[in-house]
Specification:
Layout lengths: L1 H5 L2 E7 L9 H8 L7 H15 L5 H20 L4 E7 L6 H10 L4 E6 L9 H14 L3 E4 L7 H17 L8 E8 L12 H16 L4 E6 L13 H10 L4 E5 L8 H4 L1 H11 L4 E4 L7 H15 L6
Parallel strand pairs: 1-2, 1-3, 3-4, 5-6, 5-7, 7-8
Helix pairs in contact: 4-12, 5-6, 7-8, 7-12
Keywords: Cytoplasm, Heme biosynthesis, Iron, Lyase, Metal-binding, Porphyrin biosynthesis
Family: Belongs to the ferrochelatase family.
Pfam family, one: Ferrochelatase
Length: 316
């Protein structure tokens, strides 16, 4: 492979990472907590959450593997086989970001593009991934370009529009006056606002574009999955929002997690179990859109963004 890859442009596909198995949860969260293992109580809570969504099978890691494989196929179709070679780099699990860059170097790759499986940019998320990748690339003499964002790519918006339309049909059709589309994304520490960070604005821009495309006039945005750090995080949280909507008499909600691209804990537990139960207890029917996962339109958005970055657009 090294001979072929050496002539290819490397594509470092980055994401947050997830444990490979239920047994790997402690090591995974120890890495997230900068080497501090979770307490026995925290570990039990985390493990029970994973148990409740996956049972005896652990398919979450396969989602990222499938996305990287699908992106490789899409790049081959658009640019020709061998033009690009995809590598995986995870923030909190192996193969780590540095492992992905080292694998490129071992294959003789001299030019690479980094893209994160998160459409919206934040210095705290995407910026951190890119910093690690850039530093490792420099060690190996690899010319590295970073994709900042692709939150308004037409293929991404259309793929989400289709999912919102489908979801509204399940809730009684787009004309149903009480069906509210609730866009959501992973919260970040509130100090991000002091940095003039574009994360919140880009999430609102994605949400507005999808709502307009789907003809959904009744929509709001909310945050979810905030960390327990003792510091303030961006809000309101989805449970607070649902409480307010219930008080306003809203009876049906379609959660649209525009800050997430695949089925994992924050979607399968935080929305499908926790938020759904919370909503039902308050008389709200809560449905969720299908996640993008390896949807061909999402793969096209990623592939086209990578190719544009190589040509000098949307990269840095």
């Amino acid at each position: 492979m090294s001979g072929q890859a050496g002539k290819s442009i490397g594509v470092l596909v980055m994401s947050y990472g997830t444990p490979e198995s239920l047994e790997g949860i402690e090591a995974y969260y120890t890495h997230i907590r900068r080497g501090n293992p979770p307490s026995a109580e925290q570990l039990e809570d985390l493990t029970s959450r994973y148990h409740s969504i996956v049972g005896g099978v652990f398919p979450l890691r396969e989602n990222t593997n499938n996305q990287v494989a699908a992106l490789q196929r899409t790049l081959d179709e658009l640019a020709g086989a061998g033009t690009y070679v995809c590598y995986q780099g995870l923030k909190h699990a192996a193969p780590y970001i540095e492992d992905g860059v080292a694998a490129m170097a071992a294959d003789g790759v001299k030019e690479a593009v980094g893209i994160v499986l998160t459409p919206q940019y934040s210095a705290m998320s995407v910026g951190g991934y890119m910093k690690r990748a850039q530093e490792e690339a420099e060690k190996h003499g690899i010319a590295f370009k970073a994709v900042r964002e692709y939150h308004l790519h037409p293929e991404l918006i259309d793929a989400l529009k289709i999912r919102v339309t489908d979801g509204l049909e399940r809730l009684g059709g787009a004309g149903s006056s009480d069906a509210l589309v609730l866009f959501s994304a992973h919260s970040l520490p509130a100090k991000v606002l002091e940095m003039n960070d574009p994360y919140a604005d880009q999430l609102l821009a994605t949400s507005a574009a999808v709502a307009q495309a789907a003809g959904a006039e009744n929509w709001q945005f909310t945050w979810q999955s905030a960390g327990q750090t003792g510091q303030p995080w961006l809000g309101p949280d989805i449970l607070e929002t649902l409480e307010k909507l219930a008080a306003e008499g809203v009876k049906s909600v379609l959660v649209t997690p525009v800050g997430f691209v695949s089925d994992h804990l924050e979607v399968l537990y935080d929305i499908d179990i926790e938020a759904k139960k919370f909503a039902e207890e308050r008389g709200i029917r809560l449905e969720r859109i299908r996640m993008l996962n390896d949807d061909p339109q999402y793969m096209a958005a990623l592939a086209e963004t990578v190719i544009e970055a190589v040509r000098g657009r949307n990269g840095g």
